[in-house]
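Exercise 7. Given the encoded structure of a 234-residue chain, write a plausible sequence.
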């Protein structure tokens, strides 16, 4: 299995997904989303991952490379390939599926408790776990037609969606401590626009926040990608 990651900025990478890929012996390749000529032809059991970034889907009409990226993602959707979208990635997929993407009055940036949808927990065979997950977004979307909801937070009614071949996360289950610091360092001006109910200090007070989010992400990935058996690396 090859995992093709469309990356929008260098500092927002696949995070825990890199570790997970190595553990299962999967190849993971980064592709600069701003260079559509470099997009590979997806074949076999290739998985497309569309990562986050500071852009907005609302910029798409006047941004040529984003239009080409949307075409590439849409082709993968039509081919029923496994696709994972994270933050901006999930917003791109939601837009392609025909739903509205709009802006929050106050950004959701930091750690906030997730309320998982019961159908999602049942379909992915994961138990209820009330833990904070990391968020870093200013845009939200309605539930795309033909998908099921993943969960919600106080500020964001739709925190993701899924089908048998699409998995969209509005939040960041893949984020590492280093990745969070990179976001803070590069998007520091945006932090002032955030809703103050969201906890920015969680990882400093309790580094276990990141580990807990990875522990939640792992079985979801393995169920979605139908990976089971013994890992290559512990």
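Solution.
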């Amino acid at each position: 299995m090859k995992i093709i990651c469309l990356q929008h900025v260098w500092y927002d990478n696949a995070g825990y997904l890199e570790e997970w890929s190595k553990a299962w012996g999967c190849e993971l390749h980064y592709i600069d989303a701003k260079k559509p000529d470099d997009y590979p032809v997806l074949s076999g059991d290739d998985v497309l991952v569309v990562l986050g970034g500071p852009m907005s889907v609302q910029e798409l009409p006047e941004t040529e490379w984003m239009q080409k990226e949307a075409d590439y993602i849409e082709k993968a959707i039509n081919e029923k390939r496994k696709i994972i979208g994270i933050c901006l990635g999930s917003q791109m997929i939601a837009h392609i599926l025909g739903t509205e993407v709009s802006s929050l009055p106050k950004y959701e940036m930091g750690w906030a408790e997730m309320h998982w949808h019961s159908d999602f927990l049942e379909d992915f065979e994961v138990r209820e776990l009330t833990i904070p997950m990391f968020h870093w977004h200013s845009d939200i979307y309605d539930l795309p037609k033909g998908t099921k909801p993943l969960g919600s937070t106080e500020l964001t009614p739709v925190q993701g969606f899924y089908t048998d071949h699409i998995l969209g996360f509005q939040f960041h289950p893949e984020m590492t401590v280093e990745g969070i610091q990179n976001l803070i360092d590069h998007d520091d001006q945006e932090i002032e626009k955030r809703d103050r109910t969201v906890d920015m200090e969680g990882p400093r007070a309790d580094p276990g926040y990141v580990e807990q989010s990875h522990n939640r992400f792992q079985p979801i990935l393995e169920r979605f990608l139908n990976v089971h058996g013994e890992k290559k690396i512990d």
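Remark. The chain has one domain: 2-224. Students should compare their own answers with the one above.
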